[in-house]
């Protein structure tokens, strides 16, 4: 961080070089979804982007965020309102902190053409602390702010390059895609990725249809107007009640019905849409839980038989419900999801405090296989399968390199520069989740093969666990 001549104000500059032309890169930033795609997960929780920009990046547009307090693992946020100012497409745009924990924050995004026809982005940030911190600005800037900005903008650069490469690969006609479960951990990023590529995303939400990119439905009551699905190209269903709970009779019913009943409702509605206006494809979540719990070292392909246990039963029923859409000539994809990694949710979030404290290690012996996948690859694979007309049937969606649980803990803790040698018996998870949920969620061993996904043309961003952890945690040192 370099001084700009004022004792109280410092400036930060980050440069990103891209092969894509300036107009394409600037247009990416103008589209809905750019902010959640560029917001690092290590900066806060899943509600970090609390309100999307009200009018894109045009002057006067506002966005509201929650910025994580360092050391709180996304549990404590400070409110931040960003307001867009000067704007001259495709040359530059600016945003500033209208409300927040600093005296001043202005971010100027400058886009320049390179001689090779690509783009040079200069991110120029001006920062001034609150008056009470002014006397310690140099110390705060060098010890805290500069390293944090380095992490943030390195993350943004990786995201932008990977997203643009994804859209270059999927350069077919822009589609209209309806997404159920659009506000979840995965759904939020799927929608954002598709939107930045120029696709039209319609979110399926409980309640009434509003006509502004929202289809209203109520799976519990069996309410969905088939007319609302007319003209949609692809329907993606990612919804379902959380499985991270005790497997009581009531919770099991909720887990099963939230997936199967909603999918059956979708299929019935799709069957009532006139053929010429009907979506061409239905992409529905499933999980590697399809294969059951006790598969040991067996390498599991999409042709492997389903296993035992409650979650395997749920997945079978879920996939059968989705398969009903084939009767209407639709392409159906079942996404057998691995363990999604993000510090904002899923498997990793509850483990991070223990890892930071150096208290992680083998869980229940640590020999069980974990088929993990980074959140960005999860979103990318869903979008890829939605856009790929040849993709059909079940797909294992996990990273190409599964690991045993003890290696998982060692690798992620290692990225945090912490040991992972404290064994945890299954008695702990059993006290929290009960015996059955622990056996199916914590102790299950599933080693899936993703050759079919790779053969479909999907290009992973991070194939190995260390690279994934470094990216999502912003720790590349």
TrEMBL record:
Segments forming domain NAD-dependent epimerase/dehydratase: 177-397
Segments forming domain DUF1731: 425-472
Domain of life (superkingdom): Bacteria
Sequence segments annotated as region (Disordered): 33-68
NCBIfam families referenced in this protein's UniProt entry, alphabetically: yfcH
UniProt record similarity statement: Belongs to the NAD(P)-dependent epimerase/dehydratase family. SDR39U1 subfamily.
Name of protein: TIGR01777 family protein
Species, as recorded: Kocuria rhizophila (strain ATCC 9341 / DSM 348 / NBRC 103217 / DC2201)
